[in-house]
Amino acid sequence: MTKILIVEDNKLNSYMIETMLKGHGYLVTTAVNGAEALEVARADPPDLVVSDILMPGMDGFSLCREWKKDEKLKKIPFIFYTATYTDPRDEEFALSLGADRFIMKPQEPEELLRLIEEVKVGAPPPPREPQPDETVYFKEYNQALIRKLEDKLAELKKSNYVLGKEIAERERAEEKLRFTQYTVDHAAVLIAWADFRSGRFTYVNETLQNKLGYSREELRELSLSDVDRLFSPWPEFMKKLREKGVVAFESSHVTKTGDIYPVEVIAEYTRFDGKEYVIAFIRDITRRKQSEESLRESEVRYARAVRGTSDGLWDWNVLTNEDYFSPRWKELLGFAEDELTNQYDTFFSRVHPDDTKRVETAIKAHLEQQGVPYNIDHRLRTKSGEYRWFRVRGMAERDELGQATFMSGSISDITESKLVEEELKKHREHLEELVKKRTKELAEKVTELERFHDATLDRELRMKELRGEMEILKAQINTDKNTD
User: Fold this and answer.
1) Does residue 60 sit in the same domain as residue 121?
2) What percent of the chain has pLDDT over 70?
3) Residue 459 in 3-state DSSP?
4) Which pTM does this prediction carry?
5) Among 36, 191, 308, 456, which residue has the fewest nearby CB atoms (within 10 Å)?
């Protein structure tokens, strides 16, 4: 039975080759480096040796050189089987040392067995004689090592580059994770994860932790039902949540100190990492409840006040776009209560086209900027098709974030006052026109008088000159008489 010596420092590679050869009837011995291989072979020479090149201590090249110098071993076929030295010059150097084959890893088992069998039966061409010149040997050996070192350096640079990219990507991912974790922990919404079957908390963000007044460790010993006064029995809730996926409800939470506050809960069923959980998104609705109560009180007071006014009332749910128009509002436009629907378009479809943009701008400014009043005069089309003037006032209600959620107000018919204003405007314009006309006439008269005045002055000057000339003539005549 053929005995093969495997020289390989990688235990897994050695085991795989050994198993394959034993499975095909070979006897196998192993060594982890060249020095051990020489020791084993000299004690019990094999029929063939299969050796790696890159090994600790004595490598494959040194082993082959010593092997071919040993009178007892030099005729035993020597095969290099390597994944590290793959340059053609490495193969040339290996064969120059007397190796019978230079095989590069990996090979299919069948192909490796075929090559081993070829060497065993002497089929390959005669190997080259070992290089006897020590200087040439060490030169080529060092060149092979340098090539391998350069290859390793190149691989190391490439590995470092890839590793650097992976580290940078991991750092970015970790930064995103930290950012996400911080965002969730400090979100305005209260967030909790609970085990689906027991209801026990598995995660609570810092906002909810601070709200309830418990430490995170204390909360992990509690369940949703421990802090929720109105929570339904857990089995019933589990069934309902699994069926619907998402359940929303209002309830009350109890803090560690016993304070109670109203909440709105959106519970969501989810599976994560093979386990079932409930994710609860919770909002403290204390301010909303207070606002609702204040609104109810205001509505009562407002209803009392409305009974004594002739204005029409309206309100608008900004979030759902639902409207309400009081019977008086509809009456001001000439409609019965059941003749107009409570819809947003009911109002805007009746705004005069020339006023539409102005109305939209005023509404937008009021909703987006707190403190900007909504008080505007514009025209609405009545049932008869006539446009009448109305003064529309309103005020938005806002949530805890300052977003407008509701808007309500009144309309007053100011058509008569607008007509009076229009008449006054026309009268004022008429008077202004008369003043302009009279001013023009006066200006023309002044100009005519100035021309007459100038002409009169010219005549007086001419008369004065003539009188002077006459006096001169009279003096000359008298002088002539005296002379005669």
Assistant:
1) yes
2) 88
3) helix
4) 0.37
5) 308
Based on the fold, state whether residues 271 and 376 are members of the same structural domain: no
User: Is the domain of 27 the same as that of 113?
Assistant: yes
Structural domain range at position 33 = 3-132
Query: Do 338 and 458 lie in a common domain?
Result: no
Q: What is the pLDDT of residue 145?
A: 57
Rounded Cα–Cα distance for residues 167 and 160 (Å):
10
Q: Are 323 and 315 in contact (CB under 8 A)?
A: yes
Pairing verdict, β 48-51 and 27-31: unpaired
pLDDT in tens, 336-371: 988 988 888 888 899 999 999 999 999 999 988 887
In angstroms, the CA 90 to CA 26 distance is: 29
Question: What contacts 440, CB < 8 A, 6 or more positions away?
Answer: none
| 245, 467, 474, 475 from 478: Cα distances, Å | 141, 17, 6, 5
Question: Which value, to the nearest 10 degrees, does the dihedral of the CA atoms of residues 168, 171, 177, 178 take?
Answer: -140
Beta bridge partners of 51: 7, 80
**Cα Dmax for the chain:** 193
For residue 124, the model assigns a pLDDT of 47
Instruction: Tally the residues of the chain.
Output: 484
Give the pair of three-digit tokens for residue 299.
């509505």
**Phi, psi for residue 385 in degrees, rounded to 5:** 95, -10
Q: Are residues 29 and 100 in the same domain?
A: yes
Q: What is the pLDDT of residue 31?
A: 92
Question: 331: Cβ–Cβ under 8 A, 6 or more apart, which residues?
Answer: 312, 337
Residue at 341 is within a domain: yes
Mean pLDDT of all residues belonging to the chain: 83
